């Protein structure tokens, strides 16, 4: 098994129960209110459009809050993730909400092999996913393999320009990390996850990669998709730059000063020809 994959999967297995117990993922609100959507999917709605009746696969679905939200919009949804612990939490959530969702354990690059012969109307990838993938080209190949002709990819993720900024500087925007995809990962060491949790992580090392916007688009074009939407946003659903951001009523964080300086996230929609 690839060393980076092994490290990252161990981290996500450890984080999964902490995230399920955290108020940030709002599990209990989702269970109590059958019309509630995750903040992420609610933000996506204007560009996502009507998905009622569509066959949808959610790649890197984690504990399934966004997956459940897609199902509540009327889609038949399959969630895929490489973390067994994350899928266990996702299945519990779906059962508590009495919602039929199929979950499959697989690395993203092997998703089409884990679902042989299956194709979908929509491939959905939620925010904070692509940085865990070493290469963007095999991801684009997988997306194309999973889509029906005329099927659609919906991607919202952190902007690669933001990912190049060092968040430790709270008084300025300073580029210190790669914008373009690199062979070697950026290595992080932290015993804390990104939600409030009392427990410290034993698996504290993780590996990430950035992928430039042009690299993502070019990879999709090379596998037979054509771009229909590209929107850069001045917001992101976590405090990506501590000390420099304010949280809006929509749950999104924006730069406190001169927000037009930096794109924080982007939405990309592409269709398989």
Explain this structure to me?
Its EC number is 2.1.-.-. It is an enzyme of class 2 (transferase). The protein is an alpha/beta fold and 273 residues long. The chain has helices at residues 3-21, 27-32, 39-48, 65-72, 84-96, 111-114, 136-146, 160-163, 213-222, and strands at residues 55-59, 76-81, 102-105, 120-125, 147-158, 186-189, 205-208, 225-233, 245-247, 253-255, 265-272. The strands form 3 sheets. The protein has a 7-stranded mixed sheet, sandwiched between helices. A two-stranded antiparallel sheet has the order 6-7. Helix 1 runs parallel beside helix 5 (84-96) and helix 7 packs across helix 9 (213-222). It starts with a helix and ends with a strand.
Question: Which SSEs are present, and which pair or pack?
Answer:
Layout: H1 3-21, H2 27-32, H3 39-48, E1 55-59, H4 65-72, E2 76-81, H5 84-96, E3 102-105, H6 111-114, E4 120-125, H7 136-146, E5 147-158, H8 160-163, E6 186-189, E7 205-208, H9 213-222, E8 225-233, E9 245-247, E10 253-255, E11 265-272
Parallel strand pairs: 1-2, 1-4, 2-3, 4-5
Antiparallel strand pairs: 5-11, 6-7, 8-11, 9-10
Helix pairs in contact: 1-5, 7-9
